[in-house]
Design goal:
Elements: E1 16-17, H1 19-28, E2 33-37, H2 41-46, E3 48-49, E4 53-54, H3 60-67, E5 73-77, H4 81-93, E6 99-102, H5 105-111, E7 116-117
Parallel strand pairs: 1-6, 2-4, 2-5, 5-6
Antiparallel strand pairs: 3-7
Length: 123
C-alpha cells in the first residue's frame, strides 16, 4: 500500500500558509513546489528551511525569471512578514500565479521542529 493512500491529501494552496500546510505538502510528496527564501545570502547560509532556494529580494524577480516557471507553486518567506509580502507582490506583478506567503517564516518553521539546513563555508 502506498503511503499516499494513508496520508490525508493536502489542502489547496492559499495566499498565506502555515508551516504545517507546507510540511503536509512536502510529506505528501508533491514535488511541483518551490520554497523561496528572500533574505540575504548570509542569513540563508546560517539557517534555512530544508530544500529552500535563496533568491534575495534585491534580485528576486530577475533570478526567478531564469529559475522558476510562472505556474509553479511557490512558498515565500523572508526576514519579516513585510519582506515576504513584498516579495510575493513583486512575483505576482512579474506574472507568477501560485504564490503563498509562509506565515511565521523560518522562525515559525523552527518553532515546530521542522528540518532546517545550514551551509558552512571552508575557512
Amino acid at each position: 500500500m502506498a503511503i499516499f493512500n494513508i496520508l490525508p491529501k493536502p489542502e489547496p494552496m492559499q495566499a498565506k500558509s502555515r508551516s504545517f500546510d507546507l510540511k503536509t505538502r512536502l510529506d505528501w510528496g508533491e514535488p511541483a513546489l518551490t520554497i523561496v527564501d528572500v533574505r540575504d545570502l548570509n542569513s540563508f547560509n546560517d539557517s534555512h528551511i530544508q530544500g529552500a532556494i535563496s533568491l534575495p529580494i534585491e534580485t528576486l524577480v530577475e533570478r526567478a525569471s531564469v529559475n522558476l516557471e510562472k505556474n509553479r507553486d511557490i512558498y515565500v518567506y523572508g526576514e519579516t512578514a513585510e519582506q515576504a509580502e513584498e516579495a510575493v507582490n513583486q512575483l505576482r506583478e512579474a506574472g507568477y500565479i501560485n504564490l503563498s506567503e509562509l506565515v511565521g517564516g523560518l522562525e515559525g518553521w523552527k518553532a515546530v521542529g521542522y528540518p532546517v539546513e545550514t551551509i558552512t563555508r571552508a575557512k
